[in-house]
Here is the input.
Amino acid sequence: MTAELVRGQNHPLPGTRLEIRVSTGKPVVAGATLGDEQGKVRGAEWVAHPGAPQLPGLEVSGQAASDHRLAVDLEALPDTVHRVNVLLALPDGVGGPASFAAVAAPFVAVTGPDGAEIATYTVTGLDAESAVVALELYRRHGAWKVRAVGQGYAGGLAEMLSDQGLLQAHELAGVIQAAVVGGAARAVAVPPPRTAGAGTGPSGPVDYVHPRRRSAAPPPPPASPPGQPATPVAGDATGWSMEERLYNQVWGMFEDMARTTAAYRSAVGFAESRMEQEVDRALSDPRGRIGPAGADARRQAQEKRDGLTAQAREVLDRDLAQLIAESQVVEPALPPAFARWDNPVWHGYRVPMEIPMALRVGDLHLPERPELRIPMLVRLPLERSLWIDSARTTSDPAVEWDAGLLRTRAMDTAVALAARLLAVYPAGEFAVHVIDPAGSAAGSLAPLVGSGVLDPAPVAGARTVADVLGRLVQRVDLVQMAVRGGAADSLPPDLDTAEQLLIVNDFPHGFDDRALTHLRYLADEGPSVGVHLLMVADREDASRYGPVLDPLWRSLLRITPVPDDHLADPWVGHAWTYEPSLPPPGSRVLDHVLGHVAEARRGLPD
Here is the structure.
C-alpha cells in the first residue's frame, strides 16, 4: 500500500535500493545532498547535481527536465552519511519560470527496484521559492525512513545549500546553473567523498583515528529486518562512549517526537481545510444549500476528513509506540547526570572522576502523549545561567498555586539542580554559594546546609549580598586578566578555581544599584570563566527597575517549578511542556548523594 505523505510525515523504507521519480510539468534541476548525523553537508563532494551526477550510492540526472529518475543505493553510501536530501531548483538563464508559483505542484514518488510505489508526496504551498527540499531519506536505529519536507527557498540553490551548512554554497550553485545552461555537464567533476581510512595525503595514507583514541568507535547495533520496527537498544546512536551515545540517542528521540507530532498536526490541519473547501464548493450553488444534497455533501466531506485524520493518528500512534518502547530501555540505562532522581542508579552513586558532557534539568512532553517524557539535557559546563520563574504562571488554567507555596517549590527546584551539579562534578571542582537576604529559603536549603557542601553557609541580610557578589566579581576579573594576559599560572594560590554556582533567592530583595550592576556583570561575563547564576525570581518583582534588567532576563534560560509549556524545540517550534526534575516526595536521595559529595570534599588535601 502506497503511503501518501503530507509535509513533515515520515514512512519506513522496506529496502535500500530505491528510485525517486519527480514530475513537475516544466524543466527543473534535480539533485541530492548527503548529510552527516547533524544534517550538515561537509563539502561540495557531498552534492550530486548535473555537473557531478554520480556519488557513491547516488545518481541524479545530468540536465534540467520535467521528469527525473534518481537512483539511490542506501547500502553504498559512506558510513558517515545519515541523511539524503532530494533537491529541486528552477534553472537560471534558460527562459523558464522564476518561481515555483508558475509550476505545477511537484510530485515525488519513492519506489522499489520493481517500480512499486512506497511513498508519494505532492509539494504544495510553494510561491516565490525557486528551490525546494522535497524529500529527506534519513537513518534512524540502523533503519532508513523517508520524510516529506517541502522546505522552499526564495534565495534559490545558494540559500538552500547554505542552509545545509555548505560553506561554498554560492560557488557551487553557480557551477550547477552553468552546467544546466551549457546543456551538458561540462563542469569539472568534484572528487568523491573521502571515507575514513581511504584518504591519501602528500606522504601516504591519512590516519583518521583521533590521536588520543586507543580504539575505534563502538560498532553500531545490528539493523532490524527491512520493513520491521527497529528493536530499541539503549545507546544505539553514534559516539565514542556510552555516555555520548546515550546523549545523542536522547536528542534523536526528541527530534523524532517533534517531527512525527508535526506531521500529525499538519495532516489533521490539511484534513480540516479540505473538508471546509469541499463543503464550500458543494454549497456554492444556492440550490444545494438545503435539502438532502447539502446534507450529503457535508456528510461526505466529514467522512473524508475523519478518514484522513484516522490515518494520520494511526501513523502517529505507531511512531509514538516505538518511541515509548525506546524510552523504556533508555531511561533505566542513563548515567546519574542524565537520570531522574527516582532512577536506581542514584542508590549506587559514587563521586565521579570526570565531568559529564551534559546535565538533566527536567523533562519535556507534548499533549498528544503526555506520558512520553523526553529528558531535557543541557551541555556542561553551563553556557547560560538559569532562571527559575516563581511567578504564578502555568499552562494549566485549572491549577492554582498559592504564591508562597510556589516560591518554596521554586527554591526546592533550585536546590535539586544545585545538588545534581555538585553530584556530577569531581570532588572539589564545583562550589555553590547562596544569597538569601531575608532568610526565607531555610527549609529548602536544609539538604545543602545540613550536608556541609555550602561554603560559607547562607547568612541573611543585605550585607551578605554585597560580600558574595564582590568575591565572585573579583574572581571573574582575576581569571579574565590572567587568561587575556596568557598568565594563568599567576593566579593567587588561594583562588578557588572550581566552577561556581550562585543561587539568588527573592531577587531583587536586598539589592541596591551597585549589587544590581555586579549581578548583571556576572550574568554577562561569568559563564565564560566558570561562574554561573541560578536566579529564583518573579520578574514582576523587579519591574521597578524598568527595561534596565531586560538584557539580564534574556541572557538566562527560563525554567519553571511547575509544568509550563514555554519551551520550543529547534526543529518545528512546538510548545513543549517543561517539568522540573525533583526527588520523589519523602525520598532521602538528596541527603544520600550530598553526603557522598561532602565526604569526598573532606578527603581532599588542603
Observations:
- The longest strand covers residues 17-35.
